[in-house]
# Entry
Amino acid sequence: MAYILIVDDDQDFADAAAIALSDAGHEVGIEQDPNNVVANMKDRVPDLVVLDVMFPEDPSAGFGLARAIRHDHEKLKGVPLLMLTAVNTRLPLGFSSRDIDDTWMPVSEFLEKPVDFSTLREKVESLLQKASS
# Structure
């Protein structure tokens, strides 16, 4: 069983994703405020983070949060990050897994909302397996 942290301001989505991942045998936490995530992660390092991009106070907060996790905190930099977002629906910028890089979008995987929860579970399992090997 892994501890998965969902960082998303959409409570309904976060709750539904948490149920889907809990049903797969994982312990799941939810953070809705991106400002407290890094501090809380230091107290309990998750095995994987599911991270949204857009938050009400900052439409690109998820990108900054991913960079902070990867580059500013030694204890957290190896945590797999699954960016799961509707950013392309709201801002047609065409972000995809092709944009993943160590500097600007340092995540492990990129998925677009809406997402089928079986796809979410498959991605999570794949990332957890890669992280443990």
Strands lie at 3-7, 27-31, 48-51, 81-85, 109-112. The helical segments are 11-23, 37-43, 61-71, 87-90, 117-132. DSSP finds five helices and five strands in the chain.
